[in-house]
Write a structure and sequence with these properties.
By secondary structure, the chain is mainly alpha-helical. It is built from 5 helices and no strands. The longest helix is centred in the last third of the chain and has 46 residues. The chain is elongated and about 85 Å long.
Length: about 180
């Protein structure tokens, strides 16, 4: 009766076994990467409008907005919002770069297994080398897939940060009336 919900777990563990220990690290990096991507999606969808509202309210409660000091405060407020928008993007970029490298490490360790089999058997036995070849190719594929899936989102987030920073800077006008 409970077999239907155990099947995805068994498929995942079987897949992780075919790729060797490196595939576990790629899986862990993928989990962290997607958690950070989902956090950024949540931030841009729900958190950023509230932050901008608070900053806008703070700015327009100031009695004057044209002096040098006021402009410095405006720059600090914009910088704070920009910092919040960029908060986890460097970590996402690092994880995107690491995943293909972990895949390459899996390739090397898998090929070492193939060469070990060839050294022990003395010939190129295809059946004996199959596990090593699998451990060489599956991590490469997994690392590339995880890295490519993250590339799409990091490019979207970076362009969104540029657009939002410019748009929000335009709304914090130095004139007496809110834009």
């Amino acid at each position: 009766m409970t077999e239907w919900w155990l099947e995805p777990y068994r498929s995942l563990t079987s897949f992780l076994d075919t790729g060797g220990w490196v595939l576990n690290w790629i899986f862990a990096a993928a989990v962290v990467l997607w958690m950070l991507i989902l956090e950024r999606l949540w931030f841009f969808w729900r958190v950023l409008p509230r932050v901008e509202g608070r900053v806008r309210s703070h700015w327009f409660q100031r009695p004057e907005r044209r002096s040098f000091g006021a402009r410095r405060v405006r720059g600090a407020l914009l910088g704070r919002v920009n910092l919040l928008m960029n908060q986890t993007l460097p970590t996402i970029q690092v994880l995107i770069a690491i995943c293909p490298l972990l895949g390459l490490l899996g390739t090397v360790t898998g090929m070492i297994e193939v060469f070990d089999v060839m050294a022990v058997k003395g010939t190129a036995d295809a059946r004996a080398m199959a596990a090593g070849v699998s451990r060489a190719t599956v991590p490469t594929m997994a690392g590339m897939v995880v890295g490519l899936s993250g590339l799409f989102f990091i490019n979207r987030f970076q362009s969104r940060v540029r657009v939002e920073a410019e748009r929000f800077g335009d709304t914090l006008s130095v004139s007496e009336q809110p834009a």
